[in-house]
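My hope is that you will study the record closing this message with an eye to the fold:
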Amino acid sequence: MEFETWWLVLIPLLFSLGWLAARLDRRAHGGQQQPMPASYFKGVNFLLSEQPDKAIDAFLEVASIDTHTVELHFALANLFRKKGEIDRAIRVHQFLSTREQITQAERQRATYELGVDFLRAGILDRAEQAFNSLSESDLKADAARQLLELYELEKAWDKAIDQAQRLREFGAPIPSGDIAHFYCELAEQAMEQSQHDQAKTHLQSALLIEPKNVRASLLLGHMYFSQDRFDDAIAQWRAAEQQNPWYLPLVGPKMWEAFKRLGRMDEGIEALKNYGLMYPSIDLLLVLAKAVEEARGPDEAFSLLREQVRARPSLLGLDKLLEHQLRGVLDDERSRDLKLTRELISKHTQRLERYRCQHCGFQAKKFYWQCPGCAHWDSIVPRRAEELDFYPVPAKKVA
């Protein structure tokens, strides 16, 4: 990666100012002013000739001669990291972390910055080693926060829980909801291995630390469903309404399936209809339409869709309405016009049916409890982009 022009001015200027400040300090204390090291001029020449690696070597030689340039080397490494040149930032921070001439605090800072470099480069084992080495230093809280990020990336949820608790001891404002999600992640892993007792223990821990964590309640319902305990699953999902009803669309299909397995289809349709009225959602509407079609036929499902779309217009609803209307129609000019209309609407609705993070704007067709873009928990609400534009639902506030 090439240097930009402003680098050629900024970096030499930083070193010059640092050297000048050091010389003035020495002069004020009665010392003799020393000439600027030749390695400094070599570094500038290498920068001008676009040889940044040789420039680094030269500037590191300056640091080995003159400890007053330490701050400038930190600045140089941070510039490399911001430019995405992590390997060069690592070289500078590794050098500083091993210099005996600088203070212990400066070496610890260099070790911390080196851990950040490794984390950004995806070298997670080296990053973990660097941060763990600072567990007894003044930077232990900052290192612990970086370790929490690292364990989330590794999906090492046990370690993430321990680290979050440790950060809380340091006074860091770690939301209880985030820790509850760590337990939910452990529960999902246990459920995948059919370890239901262990999964239930994790989910109970999640609800203990954050009683309003709706994910834990939804997962308990899924676990009961997988065990054919359909009454328990329905009861658990109904209880989730008291925590946050806007997440009911996530379990709509399973809830209908549970009612159907129990032979209580009319009760299931009535439940979905009531939820749709109280907490309008295109996803709940589509589940309801499917349920009505399976229980009472396509004509009644079409009438329901038309009534709901007219009451609450949306392109996503209109797309499904046209899909139903085109079933079994004759291939004539009118039907071809309708098909063309639906094709155009379908292309447009592809971006409207996405979920959107309300913190960073990340969008995806799949719902995520943790945003892949900004890594915040609960920043995506289970409402499609089109619905959020017209009927916003507040997400969790994030720092």
User: Anything to note?
Assistant: The first helix runs from residue 5 to 28. The chain has 20 helices and three strands. The radius of gyration is 30 Å. The beta strands are 355-357, 363-364, 380-384.
